[in-house]
Specification:
Largest sheet: 9 strands, mixed
Strand content: 25-35%
Family: Belongs to the Gfo/Idh/MocA family.
Helix content: 25-40%
GO molecular function: nucleotide binding; oxidoreductase activity
Strand order of the largest sheet: 14-13-12-11-7-10-9-8-15
Radius of gyration: 20 Å
Organism: Paenibacillus pasadenensis
Structural class: alpha/beta
Protein name: Oxidoreductase
Order of helices and strands: EHEHEHEHEHEHEHEEEEEEEHHEH
Number of helices: 10
CATH topology of the largest domain: Dihydrodipicolinate Reductase, domain 2
Keywords: Oxidoreductase
Length: 356
């Protein structure tokens, strides 16, 4: 276990998500500091490092991984590079926070999880929204029985980037497409709130020849135990939406901004029952900072991971099946594998609220 007061980070790449959200979140967090940044373009690395006051700038990822002062790395690289650089970082003795989706397949994710276990290092998938306090509050509302037995969930995450050029999301071989980019969010939140894994999936998608043949829009049905259905739609060729609805026998829970909530904008949610409609106010906090601090507490203080690597493996199994269902236009049954994470398993109290 490291003895440093703060976890020392290096960032592999200067992607937009790193510059716009994760690095600022790390810098605002309590238990982390960013000490190095690497890019295959040394000048770009230096410019980005200077922008954030980061000491070291490297012209290759290998250089950063050889820096013994770096304890953890954040990987915001294109999806097809996640497996390679996660494993290389783990083998270099670094803890790894890797952008979602963790891998391109469940087999890759399992290989990464095993590499972390072998190296004795922590590995986490960067779903920042799960660390926001409102989701603990949402689970409390569901578990309390206020909206009755669960009957369905519906999640949406869409935006329109169809006119952009040179977009890595349009390269199929690199893990492009709407399911990998944003469909993973409603799939993830359903697994987290229900505390179980789907038994089968069916998905349909618009594969666009204009955009490298990737799924630009997709919709799907996840069949959970007890007859509970989850529907979702996602993609990169529609107006912006970012919502979640949880339907119960006695009420509805609505999250207007389900997956993006920061220091500005709406972070609360609505609960509607026979008694009326109420707004649950939630503090505006940086969920990227909270994600980083949760990771640091595991590394620095030995606290259990809220979402261990096997959760990412289970989620990747569902995401991969959705893509295959859309490509083959078939319903795909999934093997039984239990709850997806320690925190999902803890949500077993939902069983008493109508989820068998």
């Amino acid at each position: 276990m490291t003895q440093s007061a703060k976890l020392r980070w290096g960032v592999l790449g200067a992607a937009g998500i790193a510059r716009g959200s994760v690095i600022p979140g790390l810098l605002r967090s309590q238990l982390n500091e960013v000490k190095a940044l690497a890019s295959r373009d040394r000048d770009k690395a230096r410019r980005t490092a200077d922008e954030f006051g980061i000491e070291a700038a490297y012209g290759s990822y290998e250089e950063l991984l050889s820096d013994d002062s770096i304890e953890a790395v954040y990987i915001p690289l294109p999806n097809h590079l996640h497996r390679e650089w996660t494993i290389r970082a783990l083998e270099a003795g670094k803890h790894v926070l890797c952008e979602k989706p963790l891998a391109l397949t469940a087999a890759e994710a399992e290989e990464m999880a095993l590499a972390a276990q072998k190296a004795g290092r922590q590995l986490a998938e960067a779903f920042m929204y799960r660390h926001h306090p409102r989701y603990a509050m949402i689970r409390e509302v569901i578990a309390s029985g206020e909206i009755g037995d669960l009957r369905s969930l519906h999640g949406t995450f869409t935006f329109n980037s169809s006119g952009s050029s040179g977009n890595v999301r349009f390269v199929k071989e690199w893990g492009g497409g709407g399911l990998y980019d944003v469909g993973c969010y409603p799939i993830s939140v359903a697994r987290m709130l229900i505390g179980a894994e789907p038994e089968a999936v069916t998905a349909r998608a618009l594969f666009s020849p204009e955009h490298g043949g990737v799924d630009m829009m997709a919709s799907g049905l996840l069949e959970f135990p007890g007859g509970l259905g989850v529907t979702f739609d996602c993609g990169m060729w529609g107006a912006f939406r970012n919502k979640l609805e949880v339907l119960g026998t006695d009420g509805i829970l609505e999250v207007p901004s389900a997956f993006m909530a920061g220091l500005e904008g709406e972070t609360g949610f609505y609960v509607t029952t026979g008694s009326g409609r109420r707004y649950v106010d939630v503090p505006q906090v940086d969920h990227f900072s909270l994600e980083a601090d949760d990771f640091a507490r595991t590394v620095l203080h030995g606290e259990p991971q809220r979402f261990p690597p096997q959760d990412a493996v289970a989620g990747m199994r569902v995401l991969e099946a959705c893509l295959r269902s859309a490509e083959q236009r078939v319903r795909i049954e999934l093997p039984s594998c239990g709850a997806g994470s320690a925190e999902a398993a803890a949500a077993g109290a939902l069983e008493s609220k109508g989820v068998e």
